[in-house]
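# nightly structure sweep
# worker-07 picked up a monomer target from the shared queue
# config: single-sequence mode, recycle default, output format = C-alpha cells
# input follows
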Amino acid sequence: MKFTIEEFKKLELNPESFVLLYAIVNKDKEVEKIVTLKGDIHATARNLEQKGYIKIMEDNSWILRKKALSLQTQTLEKRAQNLLESFRGKFPLGSNSGGYRYRGDKQGCLVKLKKFIKDNPQWTDGEILKATENYISRFEPEYIGMRQAHYFIEKNGISDLLGELEVLNEKPAVNKSSITKMI
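# output follows
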C-alpha cells in the first residue's frame, strides 16, 4: 500500500504506530508480529488509542474506532484504484463472440475489486495479478470461454479469481499419460 508523505503527516502517527494501525486495520498478523519484535507494542497501541484510532479493552484486545474504519475505507479504495489498470491490462483488448469486451468496464471492475479485497485481505496485489495471468494463459490464443474481467472477479457469488488464488501455490499434478508418451 502506498501513501504520500502528506497523507502520512495528516495521520499524525509515528512510523511504529502507523505500521501497527495498518496491521490492525488489515488483520495482518505477520506485520503485527514484526511490530511486537521491534518495540513496545503496548506503548504503540496506547499512542493509537490517544489519537482516537483504537480502543484498548481490558483483555488487551483492540477495537477499531470510527477514525480507523474511515482509514480502512480510504486504503481499500486506494488499493483497488492502484490495482485496477494493471488487473484490466492483463485481459486482452477486443470482444468475445457475444460482443462483450474482455476487459469489462472500469467501474464494474473497480466495484468488484473493492469488495474482493475487503472480503479477502490475505491476498496481495502481486498474487491477484499472477492468478489473473494464470487464468488468462489457459485461454490463449483464442480466449474462447474466458470470462470478462469483472465476472472473473465475481459473478453470482462465485469467484474464479479466488479459485485461481487458492491453487496459486499448489504444485501442478503430473499427467502420467504424457510422461509415458514422452518415453
